[in-house]
Design goal:
Order of helices and strands: HHEEEEEH
Number of helices: 3
Helix content: 40-55%
Strand content: 25-35%
Radius of gyration: 19 Å
Mean pLDDT: 91
CATH architecture of the largest domain: Irregular
CATH class of the largest domain: Few Secondary Structures
Structural class: alpha+beta
CATH superfamily of the largest domain: IHF-like DNA-binding proteins
Low-confidence stretches: 97-102
Strand order of the largest sheet: 1-2-5
Largest sheet: 3 strands, antiparallel
Shape: elongated
């Protein structure tokens, strides 16, 4: 199992789409920048057949330092969450089921 990186995504664009390497990197960066800008402004990013990235607001809550046991406040913050599509979820479950039965 390997990690998908920007470089590997750009290489896939280069080989499958036929753009030059520099155009492939520029296209990938433009897509990622557009997604990041939408998430920064609080919008969701939906990629059909893949999933939805969304910004969730977490409120203030209490936490505990596990070392000392002292209670500390955790400040409100935004987090990005991902909800996979049914298609992606199905593909992931099919792959994991096959690998478990081998």
């Amino acid at each position: 199992m390997s990690t998908v990186t920007r470089a590997s995504l750009a290489e896939q664009i280069y080989t499958q789409v036929g753009l030059s390497r520099s155009e492939s990197v520029a296209l990938l960066e433009a897509v990622l920048e557009t997604m990041a800008a939408a998430l920064e402004s609080g919008e969701s990013v939906k990629i059909s057949g893949f999933g939805t990235f969304m910004v969730r607001r977490k409120g203030r809550r209490s936490g505990r330092n596990p070392k000392t046991g002292v209670e500390i406040p955790i400040l409100p913050r935004s987090v990005i969450s991902f909800r996979p599509s049914q298609i992606l979820r199905g593909r992931a479950n099919d792959d994991s089921t096959e690998s478990l039965s081998e």
